[in-house]
Amino acid sequence: KLNYVDTFRNNVSGVTGIGGASDLDVSPDGSHVYVLGRSDDTLAQFSLNGGSASFMAALDRQADRFAGLDGPDSVTISPDGDALYAVGFDDSSFVMFRRVNDTQSTAYGDLNFAEIKLDKTGGISTLGGPTSVVVSPSGSLVVVTAGVDNAVNVFSDDSVLRIFTDGFESP
Questions:
Q1: Does the global pTM surpass 0.85?
Q2: How far apart are CA 110 and CA 70, in angstroms?
Q3: Cα–Cα distance for residue pair 166/58, rounded to 1 Å
Q4: Which of 15, 17, 18, 35 is nearest to 26 (CA)?
Q5: 19-35 pLDDT tens trace
Q6: CA of 160: how far to CAs of 51, 54, 98, in Å?
Q7: What's CA 75's distance to the chain center, in Å?
Q8: How far is 24 from 21, CA to CA, in rounded Å?
Q9: Which residues of 60-99 are buried (b: 16+ CB within 10 A; e: fewer)?
Q10: How far apart are CA 73 and CA 54, in angstroms?
Q11: Euclidean distance between the first and final Cα of the chain, in Å?
């Protein structure tokens, strides 16, 4: 049986970054939820504990000075919880954040901008209008759909360095 627990609304009671909420994902350990705010161009973070949730922070691409996520549409977390990937439809971006995954750290669950891939740069020409991102169960591949280019892009993720390479290129 489902039981209603709580509601969070943008710009109410200190909650920000969920304007036009478009997608969300839960960390593998169930301790955090990350929500994209499409109209705010943001990524909001919530803490989950003991059957309740609390708003923690929102990353804003302009205020926090990171590239990408203009019109964010999809977010997913790596199976090990160390990385979060998101796509921005309006600027054809694919962004990776590193996630603090140390439960003993006071920054546990926080995100740090790590890398961006953009359509028409770095040899990538089929990332126009990304709409969805998923990670393989092993965490080694990240797949991004691109609605404008009618394409599916596969990226490999080095599990130690977490450096993207276009999965269609030869090594």
A1: yes
A2: 20
A3: 29
A4: 35
A5: 999 999 999 999 999 99
A6: 33, 31, 12
A7: 4
A8: 8
A9: bbeeeebebbebbbbbbbbeebbbbbbbbbebbbbbbbeb
A10: 23
A11: 50
